[in-house]
Amino acid sequence: MSSTWAVRPECGPCPAAGVPAAGLLAEDELGTTITIPPVTDTSLIDPYVLQSVLSAALSHGGDMAEVFAEDSTTASAMLDDRRVEELSSGRSRGAGIRVVAGETTGFAHTSDLSESGLMAAAAAAASVAREGGAKVRTVAMSLGPLAAHDRGSRTLPSSVPKSTKLDLLVRADEAARAAGGSISQVQVGCGDSRRRILIANSDGLLAEDDQVRTRFNVMCVANGDTGMQTGYESLARTEGYEIFERYKVEDIARTAAGRALAKLSARPAPSGEVPIVLAGGSGGILFHEACGHGLEADHIVKDASVYTGQMGKLVASPLVTLVDDGTVLGEWGNFAVDDEGCAPARNVLIQDGVLTDYMWDWLRARKEGRASSGNGRRQSYQHLPMVRMTNTYLLAGSENADEIVAQTPSGVYVSKLGGGQVNTTTGDFVFGTTEAYLIEDGHITEPLRDANLIGNGPEVLRRIDAVADDFDMTPGTCGKDGQSVPVGCGQATLRITGVTLGGTA
Amino acid sequence: MTDLMDLASSVVEQAQSGEGMEVYVTRGTENEVRAYDGAVESLTSADSSGVGIRIVLDGPEGEGRRLGFAWAGSLDPTVVQAALSDARDNARYATPDPDVALAEPDGMASVEQELWDDGVISTPMEDKIALALELERATRAADPRVRQVSSADYSDGRVEVALASTTGIRSAARRTTAFVSVDAIAGEGADSQTGTGFSVGRSPTRLDPEEAMADAVLRSTRLLGAQKARSGRCTVVFDPRVVSTLLSVVASALSGEAVVKGRSFFAGRIGESVANAAVTLTDDPTDGRAFSAASYDGEGLACRRNVLISDGVLRMFVYDTVSARRAQTRSTGSAVRGGFAGTPSAGCRALVLTPGTKSVEEVLALVGDGLYVQSVTGIHSGVNPVSGDFSVGAEGLMIRDGSLAEPVREVTVASTLQRMLQSVVAIGGDLRWLPGVAAGQTLAIGDMQLSGD
C-alpha cells in the first residue's frame, strides 16, 4: 500500500544506470532515421494462435482472458572513473496470460511464445477460474482490427553505432570534469530500449505498440574541505537517438557537476516548518506523491487512500489543476496503448482544486461499470497490470517565478528534487531535495545540504499559494508493489506556505 | 541442477583463444497468492530462466583487458548463442583495463548451506491459498479497530543457479523461499493508520503467520491518534526492521568498489575509529541463520565471514574481483549480482551488528526520553551514502520516562551516517533475521534532529 518514487528499489528521478536493464543486437551501421513499418508485419503471435489460446484460457470459465506478449531489447553503456567499464545488452521475450473470473485473477507467464508454450500458460491461468467455480463461457470471439499508430520518425537505438554512443559518454565526462577542479569522480550512463507489445483479449481487443526509449544520466562527486557531495542530472525520452540533436550531453554533465560543486559550501538545511518555493521542472514529484498515488483507483476501491470519498470536493488550493496524460509525445511516460491495450488519454484529476476523477485500469474500471482511463501498466510480461500514472503534471499558472521568490521573505528554494515515497492511506509523504538554497529577504542565498521534506498530501496541496508560468517536465521511475515503470512529472515554479523540512540546523 | 551446469559449461567450452568467459544461468519457479475480502484476488504461477554472459578480451599489448556483457531471459539455445555474440561484440568497445579479470579459484572452501526445503514444492497450492486467506481473516478479526486489510499475500519461489568460467570456476546453488505479509489499516473516527507484518522462511511450513498478523495489528493500532511532534534534538530508538534498512545503506559505503572510486565516506579510514566502540559489524553469509546466507558469491567464489568494523574501528571493505585488483588486494568473496541480467559488483550480503544484551524495554528505560521509530520513509531520497547526509520521514511513538508514550507521525529524523555511528547509545540483544542484506535489532542513537512543528 505504500507507494514509492525513487532512484532504484524505491523510486527516483530518472532511471539510474542499469535500470531498465539492457540489450540490443549489434548493428554497427550508420545511424539512420527510419519510420517504423506497420506493426502488423511484425506481430509477435499469429492471430489464429491468439484465438485458440484465449479460448483455452476460458475453457474452465471466466469473464475475461487476455494475452500480453512482449519482446524487449535493451542496451546500456557506462563510463565510470574515466573508463568505459561495461557495455551491456539484453533481450527478454515472453507472454503473460490473465484470466479474470469474478473477483479472482489467475495469471501465468512464459518465455515460450510457441503455441504449446502459450497453451501451457493458458492452462495454468485457467486453473484459477476452475478453483473459483466460474461458469464456462463459450468464446466465439473475433479479434478487432489492429490500429496503426503514427510515431513519427525515430532514430532506432539499434541503428546507432556503439562508438557513437561511447562518444556521448566521453564528451559528458570531459564536460563534467572541466566544470571545476573539485569534481573528483564522474559516472556517465546511457541506455535505450525497444519494447514491442501485443495485447489481445476475449472481448475482441487486439492492440500493439512499439515503444522506444532513450536515457542519459550523469552523476558527479565533488570533494572539498567539508567532505564529498553529489550531483545528478538525467535526460530520458520516449524517443530514439534523435534526442541528442536537441539536447547536449555537455549541458547535462555541467548541470550535474554544478549541483555537486554548489553543495561543497552548503550548510545544513533548517529543521521544522518553512515556506518552500519549488522551481519549475524541479521534479514534479510533489504531485506524484502528494496525490498521484492516492488517486489510483486500486487504492480507492480498497478504501486505502486519503482521497477515497472526496470526489467533487475541494482537495487542493484553487490554483491546482492536475492532469495525468499518457498522450504527451516523447515524454517518459508516453505510449500509444497501455499494457492492457487501451489508448492513453488526457485525464483531468483535479480541476481548480476540486477532485474530478481517479485513474483506472481495466479491472478497477469494470467494478465501477466505466471505461479504463488508459492507466493499466505493468513492468513486463512477468507482471500483472495495475493502475499507474503516466505523465502527471500541474497546469501552469500566470505568475512570474522571480516575483514569487522576491515575495517570499524567508524560506527554502528547491531547484531539484530527488525521489519520494507516500503512504496513500494516511496521505503522509516525503520527497527529497538534491539542490536547495535558503531564501532570505526575497533573495536566493546560501546552498543547503540534502534533506527530506515531509507533509500530508491534502494539507500541502491546500497550502499552495502561488503558481508561475515556467512549466517544465522531468522523467522518473515509479515503483509500486515491486514493479517499476517510466513516468513523467511536470510543474511550474510554485510556493507552499509551509512544509516540514528535515534538516539538522 | 546438473543440466544447468552442463549448459553453462557447454557455453564456456565455446571460448576462443585469448578470450575469458563466465556464464551464469538461473531457473526458477514462483507462486504468489493475494487474498482480499475473503477471496483470492490474484494467483500467479510462473517459471522463468535466463543467462548472463561476461566476456573478457585481451586489449592491445600491455593495456589490459576489456569486458562485455549480455543477457537473455531464456535458455533457448539460439537465444543463448545470440547473447554470446552480443557479449563478444560489447567487449570490443570497453576501455582496456589491467584490473579487469574474471574470478579465479582461490582455494577457499565454501561453507555448504541448507537453503532448500522441499516443502515449497510438496505443499499443495490449496494449502498456500488457505494460508493467505486465513492471514487476511485473522488480521481483520484481531482487533475491532482494524477496518481494512488491503492485502494479505503468500509467495514462494525456488531458484537454481549454475556458474562456469574459463578460469575454472564451477559453482552451483539452489534455494527456496516462502513469505507471508499483511497490510492492515486501523481506523478510529477520521483517523487511519497502517502497519505491515511479515514472516519469511524456506518453506510454507516454517512461516509464522501469527507473528505477521500480530505485528501488522500492533503497528497500525498503536499509531492511531498520531500527531506531529515538536522539533528538537533527541535520542532515537530504531525498531529492528528499520535498523536492517539503515545497515543496508551503511553497506553501500563499505563496498570496496565505492571506496576505490572515491564514492564512500569511509575511503581512507581503515584503522580509524569510525563508530562507537560498542559497534562490531560483520558480513557473514556463512551463518545459516541469515535469510541471505549463501555458499558462493556472484562470481562463484566461496562466501566468507568478513569483520568490517570491530570495536568501532574500520577494519576492511568488501571486494569483488575487479574492485579488489583496483585496490591491490584480493576478493573477499563479496560479489553480488541482481540475477542473470546484472553483472557482479562488490556488496554485503548478510550484515550483522553484534547484539548487545538489553531487551527493547531495557533500551527504552536507558534512553528515558526520546523517539521510538517503527518505520521510516524516503531512505533513497534522503540518505546519501557518499556524503553521509541522513534525513528520513519517521513514524512511531514518543519515549517518556523510559516507556513508549503517545504516537507520532509526519516528522523527520536527521543527522549524518558518520555522526550516527559514533552516537550509538545502546545495541539491543533482540537480533532478528530479516530478508534483505542485514539482520536487525533495537538500536538507540543519540543527538539526532527531530523535525516536526
Describe the protein's topology:
The complex is a heterodimer of chains A (505) and B (453).
Chain A: E1 2-5, E2 34-35, H1 47-57, E3 64-80, E4 83-101, E5 104-110, H2 115-131, E6 153-154, H3 162-178, E7 183-201, E8 206-224, E9 227-237, H4 243-246, H5 249-264, E10 271-278, H6 285-292, H7 297-301, E11 322-325, E12 346-351, E13 354-355, H8 362-367, E14 376-377, E15 386-387, E16 391-394, H9 401-406, E17 410-423, E18 428-440, E19 443-448, E20 452-456, H10 457-462, E21 464-467, E22 472-480, E23 483-491, E24 494-502
Helix pairs in contact in A: 1-2, 3-5
Chain B: H1 2-12, E1 19-36, E2 39-58, E3 65-72, H2 77-91, H3 119-122, H4 125-142, E4 146-165, E5 170-188, E6 191-201, H5 209-221, E7 232-238, H6 240-253, H7 256-260, E8 281-283, E9 306-310, E10 313-314, H8 321-326, E11 335-336, E12 345-346, E13 351-353, H9 360-367, E14 370-377, H10 379-382, E15 389-400, E16 403-416, H11 417-422, E17 424-427, E18 443-451
Parallel strand pairs in B: 7-14
Antiparallel strand pairs in B: 1-2, 1-4, 2-3, 4-5, 5-6, 7-18, 8-9, 8-13, 9-10, 11-12, 14-15, 15-16, 16-18, 17-18
Helix pairs in contact in B: 4-5
Your description of this structure?
The complex is a heterodimer of chains A (505) and B (453). Chain A has 505 residues and is an alpha+beta fold. Chain A has 10 helices and 24 strands. In chain A, the strands form 4 sheets. In chain A, strands 5-4-3-7-8-9 form a 6-stranded antiparallel beta sheet. The longest helix of chain A has 17 residues, at 115-131. Chain B is an alpha+beta fold and 453 residues long. Chain B is built from 11 helices and 18 strands. In chain B, a hairpin with a 2-residue loop joins strand 1 (19-36) and strand 2. The mean pLDDT of chain B is 96. Chains A and B meet through strand 4, strand 5, helix 2, helix 3 and strand 7 of A and strand 2, strand 3, helix 2, strand 4 and strand 6 of B. Strand 5 of chain A pairs parallel with strand 2 (39-58) of chain B, so a sheet runs across the interface.
